[in-house]
Structures are given as structure tokens and as C-alpha cells.
């Protein structure tokens, strides 16, 4: 573990890269997934198309995407934007489906009540449908975030793998401590981010906990 | 006033839900739409606030054609209560009730003050304000639903089977409270139900729909019971309609006969039954003839009483039939005994009421 204490600065830099490379795509993916999921949920046939297209995106091998993206985007092969865009594609693929499912699960009677109260469609979406969907969407965001944190490491093949650099570097230079530290840090980061998202979810949805407590009380 | 003129609703699959409906809903009254499922009652209700748009014909609310107004704006001026209350699970009770005032652009403080006021009006304790809908019982949720619909003080209130998902006892309480609220607020209420008893209890006027979206009869509940327009209405109104119809005729014209009364400690009557009354002349029970003083052990529980001022013939007849002496006890508004009537008096009054109707 000597290696670790001697390279703290290097590790810290990789960690901050890793956080940016993994979480910025989740945020962008979510922002894009909300309107797309809404659109998917409105149109019957459109839904199948959008959700399946999104699913298809997820099947593209990440390695291929890293190599292919510079051609499409006109970026240099060694540009961190490639990593961000690739992971955004994956986050989006996961989250479009989540958002569409979450919105579909909003009880029709609620949408009906909101309409009858005098909500116009956009305001109704923002004030009723979206907030009610938060618990389901947040569960999807947790999956997307953890998967994104793990996928960043693949970026190390083009030199932007965040903590993944510690695997390639450690293997090439035969430093076991570096490889192990890399793995531990990636797992730890995933756990911390997941825990934080769980906390954010609790703060955002006190009503959901109240509902759960009541249901448990009723079944007990 | 809400007016339907030749309103038809044909769904894309060809089903005609409402067929050429002409109907006027009176202002300040409760109008009930009732009928079997698929009769178009709910569709008719939902066309009033444009949740469903008519295929042809027109609907006006207070003289304005509903199609000439922006749908969302129109709806903010019409209260709406639905079956499972449809409360927003992510908002506190107070904020649920404040929904429409906020949509109308009131500031948050005003809207919440108004919401607190409304919670009180519908009988919800102030400590409910901070709770979420999931923490309330079905009956309480339905009250919140009513409070939310009334928050912006709309002149018109639409209620779509609001009490059908709660148990019968809670339902009856909610019905009584709706009548109490209405006596204070005087809203134009359109109420949809499939329960004819609910319709007759709540409605100032009842519109009976038949399958296929046609109006079978539109009358006051008493008329519906005494003179159903056809076999469909007759069978829909159901059993005992003759007896239930008495509930809509006033007992005010009944001749109130003498009634022997005694007090505790008096001597028992030498023949027949006597009513035992307290110092305020309120009934305690009946005693049969005998000898010796009247004591509490000898009391036979009385039947129902009826209020000679405000009671119906149904209440009077029930008082006569349930009394051990065969005489129904008439009381005044304070519960003091006025006299008694017999079942035959009620039947005679009924015959008179019928002949009056025929003359008219």
C-alpha cells in the first residue's frame, strides 16, 4: 500500500475525473430522458419505438462506441468528450425506459383529477405527474449512476478512464497495489454515490415514506 | 343554470354514450344523474367541464357556451369531486385543498388560509393539514376531495360517484354532511350515482338515464316514486317505492288526535294504553292498563316519533306502525308530545294528496 500513499495526488486527480466522466452523463441523460419519456408515454406506437430504440442503444459495445464516436462527432480520438457522450448515450438508454415506465405508473385518476382542477398539460406534467414519478425515476437513476461509474473504466483504452487508468497502468507496470486500489475505489465511489442518491430521494419524497409506513401499518 | 341542448356523444368506436340530451340543471340545487352502467350519466357530467367534448349539441353554464372558453380556465371555475378522491399523494392535505386557488394565481399564504378554512367547513381537524393523503382513511380523503373542489368557491360542483368507494355507514355520514353543506352554500351541484336510494336522498331533482344514453325521466324524487314514467323507471326505482314515496309528502295536514298521558307515580289507566311523559311533556314510554302507580319497570319502549311540523307521511306512518299502542306519537320541534295519529289517518292523507294532484 506504499504505492497508494506515494501517489495520493495522482489518485485524487483520477477520482475527480472519474466523478465528472461518470456523473455528468447521468445528469445530461436524465434531462434528455424526461421529455423523451414523456413523449414516449403520450403516443401508443411511439412508446414502443422510443423505448426499443433506447434499449438498442444500450446493446452497442462500449469499446466500439469509444472508437466510433470521434468519427461521428468529429472530435479527436483522444478527447474526453467522447467518454462523456458515450456514457450519456448509455444513461439515456436506461433512463428513457425508466421515465416512460414511471409516468405510465401514475394512476390515471390522478391525471384526471389534475386536469379537472384546471391544470393545462405542461403545468400538470411538472406539478403532478413528474413529482409523483420521482420514486421510480430515482430508482432508475441509481442504476444508471452505478453502471456509469463502472463503465467509465472502459474509457481507459483511450486514456480517459478515470480510476480505470489504475487498472491499465497497474497491469502494464505490474503494480498490484495500484490495480487493487483502483478496484476498491471504484466500488467505494459507486456505494457512496448510490447512498447519496438514496438520501436525496428520501428528502425529495417525504410523502412516499408516509405512504409506505401507512401500508406497513395496515398489513401488520 | 346548466343547460344541455341536443347533446350527443358518439365515441370513435361508434358507441353512442349520450343521445340527444335536453336537460336544464337548476341553479343552487342538487341534481342527480342516476342509471345503470353504460347509461351515459358520467359522460354527461364530464361534458360539463369539457373532460369529454360533445359530438354535437351545446352545453352552457350560466348562459355561457362552454366551448367558447379555454378548457383549463373553465375547469378552475367548476369544482370536481371524483370517486377515489384523486388526491395528490405528494402534497399535504392543506396543499391539496389549496390547489385551485394556487392555479388561479392567489399567493401561497392566502391559498393556505382559505384551505384551512375549507378543512374546517368539511369537518377535518386542523392537525390533518400537514399529513399526506395516504395517512387518511377513505372517508377523510373524500372530505378532502370535497374541500379541494370548494376551495375557490365555484358556483358549480360536479360530483362523480364520490361516495361509492366508502363503506355504507361512512357513506351515510358523508351524504348527510353534503346536505348540511349545501344548505349553507347553495351550490349548483350535479351528482352522479348508480344508487337510486342515494339519488332520492340527495336530489332536489333526479334524472334517470337508461342504457344507450337516453333520459328516461327527469323529476323531483317524490314524483319519480309516485309516478314513474315507464316500466324501466318503475323497475329501476325498485321495491317499496310506494312506502318510500311517503317520505316526500308532508305530515302537516294530519289530524292530530288526543292521547292519554300520565306521569311517573300517577295511577295506571283503567283501560287501553297511555303514554308516560316527563315534566317537560316529553315521551318516556308506554304503559298498559292495570292498577297501582306507574313505575319505570312497567314502561314499554315506544316506537318512533314524528315531528308534526317538519315530518313526512313516512315518518308518521312508521310512528303509528311501530307504536305498541297502534298510535303514532306526534311531537313538536322540541320533542314535546302534541298528540297521536293512527295509520288510517296517514292513508287518508295520502288519498287526499293524490286527489289534489289529479285536480292539479
TrEMBL record, chain A:
InterPro entries, A to Z: ABC_transp_perm/SBD, MetI-like, MetI-like_sf
Residue span, ABC transmembrane type-1 domain: 15-197
Record localization: Cell membrane; Membrane
TM region positions: 20-40, 49-69, 81-100, 143-167, 179-200
Membrane topology: Multi-pass membrane protein
GO-annotated cellular components: plasma membrane
Key words, A-Z: Membrane, Transmembrane, Transmembrane helix, Transport
Location (main, coarse): membrane
Top-level taxonomic group: Bacteria
Alphabetical list of Gene3D superfamilies matching this protein: MetI-like
Coiled coil region boundaries: none
PROSITE patterns per record: ABC_TM1
Family to which the UniProt record says this protein belongs: Belongs to the binding-protein-dependent transport system permease family.
GO biological process, one term: transmembrane transport
Alphabetized Pfam families for the sequence: BPD_transp_1
Protein name (record): ABC-type transporter, integral membrane subunit
Keyword Membrane applies: yes
UniProtKB/TrEMBL annotation, chain B:
Domain ABC transporter residues, every copy: 2-236
The keyword Nucleotide-binding appears for this protein: yes
Family: Belongs to the ABC transporter superfamily.
Cross-referenced InterPro entries: AAA+_ATPase, ABC_transporter-like_ATP-bd, ABC_transporter-like_CS, P-loop_NTPase
Keyword set, alphabetical order: ATP-binding, Hydrolase, Nucleotide-binding, Transport
Enzyme class: translocase
The keyword Thylakoid belongs to this UniProt entry's keyword annotation: no
GO molecular function, one term: ATP hydrolysis activity
EC number(s) on file: 7.6.2.9
Name of this protein: ABC-type quaternary amine transporter
Provenance organism: Pseudonocardia dioxanivorans (strain ATCC 55486 / DSM 44775 / JCM 13855 / CB1190)
Amino acid at each position: 500500500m506504499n504505492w497508494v500513499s506515494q501517489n495520493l495526488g495522482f489518485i485524487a486527480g483520477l477520482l475527480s475525473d472519474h466523478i465528472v466522466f461518470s456523473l455528468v452523463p447521468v445528469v445530461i441523460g436524465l434531462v434528455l430522458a424526461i421529455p423523451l419519456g414523456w413523449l414516449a408515454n403520450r403516443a401508443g406506437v411511439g412508446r414502443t419505438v422510443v423505448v426499443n430504440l433506447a434499449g438498442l442503444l444500450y446493446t452497442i459495445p462500449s469499446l466500439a462506441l469509444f472508437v466510433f464516436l470521434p468519427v461521428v462527432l468529429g472530435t479527436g480520438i483522444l478527447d474526453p468528450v467522447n467518454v462523456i457522450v458515450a456514457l450519456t448515450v448509455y444513461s439515456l438508454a436506461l433512463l428513457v425506459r425508466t421515465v416512460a415506465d414511471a409516468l405510465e405508473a401514475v394512476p390515471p385518476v390522478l391525471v384526471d383529477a389534475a386536469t379537472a382542477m384546471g391544470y393545462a398539460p405542461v403545468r400538470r406534467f411538472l406539478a403532478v405527474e413528474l413529482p409523483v414519478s420521482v420514486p421510480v425515476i430515482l430508482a432508475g437513476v441509481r442504476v444508471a449512476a452505478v453502471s456509469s461509474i463502472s463503465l467509465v473504466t472502459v474509457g481507459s483504452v483511450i486514456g480517459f478512464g478515470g480510476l480505470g487508468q489504475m487498472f491499465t497502468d497497474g497491469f502494464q507496470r505490474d503494480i498490484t497495489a495500484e490495480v487493487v486500489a483502483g478496484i476498491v475505489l471504484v466500488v467505494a465511489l459507486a456505494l457512496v454515490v448510490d447512498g447519496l442518491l438514496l438520501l436525496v430521494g428520501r428528502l425529495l419524497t417525504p410523502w412516499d415514506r408516509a405512504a409506505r409506513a401507512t401500508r406497513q401499518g395496515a398489513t401488520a | 343554470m346548466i343547460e344541455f341542448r341536443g347533446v350527443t356523444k358518439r365515441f370513435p368506436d361508434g358507441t353512442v354514450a349520450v343521445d340527444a340530451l335536453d336537460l336544464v340543471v337548476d341553479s343552487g340545487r342538487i341534481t342527480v344523474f342516476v342509471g345503470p352502467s353504460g347509461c351515459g350519466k358520467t359522460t354527461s357530467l364530464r361534458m360539463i367541464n369539457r373532460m369529454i367534448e360533445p359530438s354535437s349539441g351545446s352545453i352552457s353554464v350560466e348562459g355561457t357556451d362552454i366551448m367558447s372558453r379555454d378548457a383549463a380556465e373553465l375547469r378552475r371555475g367548476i369544482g370536481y369531486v371524483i370517486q377515489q378522491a384523486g388526491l395528490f399523494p405528494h402534497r399535504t392535505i392543506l396543499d391539496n385543498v389549496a390547489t385551485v386557488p394556487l392555479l388561479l394565481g392567489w399567493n401561497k399564504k392566502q391559498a393556505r388560509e382559505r384551505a384551512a378554512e375549507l378543512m374546517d367547513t368539511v369537518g377535518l381537524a386542523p392537525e390533518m393539514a400537514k399529513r399526506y393523503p395516504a395517512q387518511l382513511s377513505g372517508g377523510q380523503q373524500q372530505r378532502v376531495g370535497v374541500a379541494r373542489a370548494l376551495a375557490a368557491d365555484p358556483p358549480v360542483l360536479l360530483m362523480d360517484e364520490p361516495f361509492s368507494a366508502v363503506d355504507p355507514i361512512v357513506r351515510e355520514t358523508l351524504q348527510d354532511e353534503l346536505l348540511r353543506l349545501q344548505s349553507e352554500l347553495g351550490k349548483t351541484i350535479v351528482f352522479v350515482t348508480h344508487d337510486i336510494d342515494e339519488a332520492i336522498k340527495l336530489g332536489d331533482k333526479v334524472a334517470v338515464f337508461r342504457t344507450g344514453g337516453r333520459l328516461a325521466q327527469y323529476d323531483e324524487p317524490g314524483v319519480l316514486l309516485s309516478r314513474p314514467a315507464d316500466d324501466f323507471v318503475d323497475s329501476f326505482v325498485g321495491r317499496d317505492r310506494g312506502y318510500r314515496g311517503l317520505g316526500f309528502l308532508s305530515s302537516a295536514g294530519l289530524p292530530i288526535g288526543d292521547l292519554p298521558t300520565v306521569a311517573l307515580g300517577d295511577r295506571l289507566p283503567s283501560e287501553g294504553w297511555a303514554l308516560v311523559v316527563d315534566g317537560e311533556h316529553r315521551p318516556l314510554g308506554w304503559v298498559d292498563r292495570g292498577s297501582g302507580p306507574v313505575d319505570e319497570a312497567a314502561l314499554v319502549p315506544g316506537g318512533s316519533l314524528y315531528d308534526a311540523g317538519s315530518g313526512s307521511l313516512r315518518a308518521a306512518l312508521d310512528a303509528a306502525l311501530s307504536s305498541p299502542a297502534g298510535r303514532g306519537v306526534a311531537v313538536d320541534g322540541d320533542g314535546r308530545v302534541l298528540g297521536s295519529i293512527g295509520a288510517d289517518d296517514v292513508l287518508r292523507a295520502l288519498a287526499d294528496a293524490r286527489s289534489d294532484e289529479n285536480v292539479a
